[in-house]
Design goal:
By secondary structure, the chain is α+β, with helices and mostly antiparallel strands. The chain has a single domain, classed as 3-Layer(aba) Sandwich (Aminopeptidase). It is 32% helix and 34% strand. The chain is built from five helices and seven strands. The protein has a seven-stranded mixed β-sheet. It is globular. The mean pLDDT is 92.
């Protein structure tokens, strides 16, 4: 498994990974109508190229198969963070997160924060994040519970 930065040709695989993961994994914590709103069928790959190129998007590449990805914005916000449905509980997320945290240190970011789904909350807790608050958000006429979480980063002497 190689962790590397996003390349434009990854966009289609990332979009498909996102769609399939939400539909197959997040369905355990959200309703059918919620996951359809979250991951609609009309995915636009061009939008993924723009979004992923504007952030530090780390991709877990398993010999050409993208096993997961995570996005870091320069101010410490982790946006999308998904592991392929067939790569759950294999350490892929931890490897992606370690790359994100290393980049945050490089950028002198002292706080990482994320809006984690019910599904992702335990993962981020294992990575050392604390829940700041539970919140309700809307997307395509559906409401979702998620969690604002943060982790303060300390410089190692």
């Amino acid at each position: 498994m190689k962790i590397r930065l996003f390349e434009p040709q990854d966009a289609e695989q990332l979009a498909q990974l996102f769609h399939e993961t939400v539909r197959a994994i997040n369905i355990h914590d959200y309703s059918c109508s919620q996951v359809r709103a979250w991951a609609p069928d009309d995915i636009h790959f061009r939008n993924w190229v723009e979004a992923c190129s504007s952030r530090f998007t780390y991709v877990a590449d398993d010999r050409g198969v993208i096993a997961g990805f995570g996005e870091l914005e320069p101010h410490g916000h982790i946006d999308c963070f998904y592991c392929h449905k067939d790569y759950q509980h294999c350490g892929v997320g931890r490897q992606i997160y370690q790359a994100i945290e290393a980049k945050a240190f490089e950028l002198s970011v002292n706080r990482l924060f994320v809006e984690a789904s019910i599904t992702a909350k335990p993962f981020f807790q294992r990575m050392g994040f604390a829940v700041v608050k539970e919140q309700t958000v809307s997307c395509r006429d559906e409401t979702f519970v998620n969690y604002v979480m943060e982790k303060l980063l300390e410089k190692v002497a």
